[in-house]
Amino acid sequence: MNLKFLETFVWVARLRNFSVAADKLCTTQAAVSNRIATLERELGVRLFERDLRTVSLTSHGQRALPQAEAIVRMVGELERLIADTGQMRGTVMIGAIDSIVYAWLPRLIERVKVAYPNVTIDLNVDTSLNLARQIQDGQIDLGLIMGPVVAPHIRNIELCVFDCLWIGSPRLALKPGRLAIADFADYPIFAYSKGSQPHQSVLRAIELAGLDAGAVRVFNSNSLATITRLIRDGVGVAVLPQVVVQEFLDNGELHVLDVDAKLPPLHLHAVFADNPGNALPALIADMAVGIAATQPPA
Known about the structure:
Residues 1-58 form the HTH lysR-type domain. By secondary structure, the chain is α/β, with parallel strands linked by helices. The chain has 11 helices and 12 strands. It has 3 domains: 3-82, Winged helix-like DNA-binding domain superfamily/Winged helix DNA-binding domain (Arc Repressor Mutant, subunit A); 85-159 and 267-293, D-Maltodextrin-Binding Protein, domain 2; 164-264, D-Maltodextrin-Binding Protein, domain 2, CATH 3.40.190.10. The protein has helices spanning 3-15, 18-24, 29-43, 59-82, 98-103, 105-115, 128-136, 197-208, 224-232, 242-250, 280-293; strands at residues 48-50, 55-57, 90-96, 119-125, 142-146, 154-162, 164-168, 189-191, 218-220, 237-241, 255-256, 266-273. Strands 4-3-5-12-6 form a 5-stranded mixed beta sheet, sandwiched between helices. A 5-stranded mixed beta sheet has the order 9-8-10-7-11, with helices on both faces. It has a two-stranded antiparallel ribbon with strand order 1-2. The radius of gyration is 24 Å and the shape is elongated. The model has no long low-confidence stretch (mean pLDDT 88).
């Protein structure tokens, strides 16, 4: 049985469209149709019901799909084990959030360059929400984000956990000692982008503190460079992982505030589609796991 035909079957089953599957496999719709027809003849059953608009699995196709996916996945894992990594070629699209860029992304890029010298990286830095959508839409191959992403055919591998700390400038006119959120209500709180987990956690902390929603201003930004610049200038306070601002904590421009409102940590994941025939995202995800494991707690 031809492995490429099984891979084609998996993609048609997932995408429910011969033409879209052909684009994904970089071939023609006629070639996809021929592969499926040949596979059906070999198996002696119809795998798909076809009409002018839709493609759906038959009962035989539904039973065959999990086994076909498992075979394609196992072959891919075997190829990963014995691959001559120096000969791997192509482009891998990686999406990462700012927190990982500040933490250890440069080390990952360097390791990929050494291990896969013929592989090109396209890098996109965005919010976790946007990157999650792009992963599901097939626009990026690997996301390093606040996850997980719960969707069909998506794999999530936990990378690390970052504690969220209240950070501010020593120039802020705050009382010494332990603080409540009400103690810095005169200053805006800079959070991550609206709708993100950290942003929702800040809103929840304000609510639990018994403050009216309008009593504390929450400003949003998807740029950590912007947030850190503003809080260094004493414009407000922020909730950030320590690794993002470590150099400014070390030089005294910023310090950790002792606030009684504790916030949940950020759980970071490597997220990628379980795509037959594309081993690079999983290989680079494994590298990211190793690098994150050696990162000091943040």
